[in-house]
Design a protein that fits this description.
By secondary structure, this protein is α+β, with helices and mostly antiparallel strands. The chain contains 21 helices and 13 strands. The strands form 4 sheets. Strands 1, 2, 3, 4 and 6 form a 5-stranded antiparallel beta sheet that branches. A 4-stranded mixed beta sheet has the order 5-10-9-7. The two termini are about 35 Å apart.
Length: about 475
């Protein structure tokens, strides 16, 4: 019988407690340059105790699902230089469990969720339904089905009891923050607060279906981006039905020739980061499980449970700050952050520290040169920016980034991590100048995107549609 997801706080907390009892971590960091930091990070974190602790944490997160698995997915994207090269393959196999987790819940249990939400038998809604899942998410599994009108659909179903598991995870992650920081130093109070604010919204699949349909309509007719249309009329709180898009998964994409990976990398960058500056909204959950290469050559994007719409003034603030950093205007950057409240202790933060801190995180898209992004480069930048054990930028790390910017910066880092997994090469700054300086595009993809904007004049969504209550899809399922 398939193993069920543990939902009690005690059961799930005990798993993390076992890791806590067996880990003793003492690691210090030194200042690292953008291109030289990865070797130094590996050297600092090569202790066997770190390797054992990391593997244990990965195993625990994989069995917990929910919020814990979300953190594990973030870790898998960024790679984080946690272990030396000699152990990397073993570690990546552990991370693969989090990124492409094998099903752990029986189909009968998942079927019960579907039938409870629809209020009728499965075969009354779907003409065909494959019992083997085709993908796993942090809080559910995805199945392949066919409606009675012949349309093939992807059906995302929540694990039974995952709502209780998510709430237990949120409590336990706060309790065991120090333990998790031994392997994931970026699990700061601010990160946990952001997870609390956003994870419970992921539990409402009907709201996500509404959002996904809006994004699909926004990108309708796009030359290289596709978002499958969801079917809100057939979606409930725990079941999300959408069009099925066939294509290559991320691991297959990684095996493609460099030119194709570069093309896909630029598309990923434009979708996850460019959407923020172009439409004032973006998907906050970039990771390999949410991307595929469709059979028609477009890149498909999935999963909109963590989607954010920003105030245009907040987006403008980020744009102005990035411009100041790109132009080495340190004092202007510092003043902007003081006025915005990012720096609340001006006497402790100098202009150069402020500039260097921003460059440590964003230099890859602020320097006008061609750059190949590697996983080491992405994870090194991330750790340098957020690791509380690092002595560099101690003053900046004590400042409070407003929540609206924390979410967008997280998406930026995770996008950087995905590009590192693909080892993409581009002049990222020239691409970014389209939205930072409103300059004409210089790449073929950029020109195609600009033509689409002119022809289609897409209108960004203003706000989410009202959330429907559970079990709204009590029809025949034949439409």
């Amino acid at each position: 019988m398939a193993k069920q997801v543990p939902t009690s706080r005690l059961a799930r907390g005990t798993k993390l407690g076992a890791v806590a009892a067996s880990s003793v971590i003492r690691t210090q960091r030194t200042r690292l340059s953008m291109r030289g930091r990865s070797a130094a990070v590996r050297a600092k974190m090569a202790e066997e105790s770190m390797i054992r602790t990391t593997e244990q944490v990965v195993m625990v997160l994989g069995t917990m699902k929910g919020v814990a698995m979300k953190l594990g997915q973030m870790m898998s994207v960024l790679d984080l230089d946690l272990v030396p090269e000699s152990h990397r393959e073993r570690f990546q196999k552990r991370l693969a469990v989090l990124r492409n987790a094998a099903p752990t819940v029986s189909f009968e249990s998942m079927r019960q969720v579907i039938e409870e939400d629809f209020g009728q038998p499965l075969d009354a809604v779907f003409a065909e339904f494959e019992p083997e899942p085709i993908a796993a998410a942090s809080i559910g599994q995805v199945y392949l089905g066919r409606l009675r009108d012949g349309r093939q659909v992807a059906v995302k179903v929540q694990y039974p009891g995952i709502d209780a598991a998510v709430r237990a995870d949120l409590k336990n992650l706060a309790m065991f923050r120090r333990v998790l920081q031994s392997a994931m130093p970026w699990v700061t109070p601010a990160v946990l607060d952001e997870l609390r604010l956003n994870m419970e919204s992921e539990l409402d699949y009907h709201a996500e279906a509404d959002t996904q349909l809006q994004i699909a309509e926004l990108y309708a007719g796009h030359p290289f981006i596709t978002v499958p249309r969801s079917l809100p009329e057939l979606s409930t709180t725990r079941v999300l039905v959408s069009e099925y898009v066939a294509g290559k998964g991320f691991e297959e994409i990684r095996q493609l020739p460099a030119a194709e990976r570069n093309r896909i990398g630029e598309i990923i960058y434009r979708f996850y980061v460019g959407s923020l500056f172009g439409f004032n909204e973006f998907c906050g959950d970039p990771h390999p499980g949410n991307v595929l290469l469709a059979d028609d050559g477009r890149v498909g994007f999935l999963d909109f449970g963590l989607f954010n719409r920003m105030d245009p003034e907040h987006v403008r603030f980020e744009t102005i700050c990035l411009r100041a950093a790109a132009e080495d205007r340190a004092e202007d950057l510092r003043q902007l952050m003081i006025e915005r409240g990012v720096i609340d202790s001006p006497e402790e933060i100098g202009a150069e520290e402020c500039l260097e801190y921003v460059l440590a995180a964003s230099e890859w898209c602020l320097v006008d040169e061609e750059l190949t992004i590697t996983s080491e480069l992405a994870s090194g930048a991330f750790l340098l920016a957020v690791d509380p054990r690092a002595s560099e930028f101690a003053g900046m790390k004590q400042q409070n980034l407003p929540p609206e910017h924390l979410f967008s910066r997280r998406a930026d880092f995770l996008t950087f991590g995905m590009l590192g997994q693909l080892e993409c090469t581009a002049n990222w700054h020239k691409i970014a100048r389209e939205w930072l300086y409103d300059e004409p595009p210089v790449t073929e993809l950029g020109k195609a995107h600009r033509e689409w904007l002119v022809e289609h004049r897409p209108t960004p969504t203003k706000k989410p549609r009202p959330r429907a209550k559970k079990s709204t899809a009590r029809g025949s399922g034949a439409q």
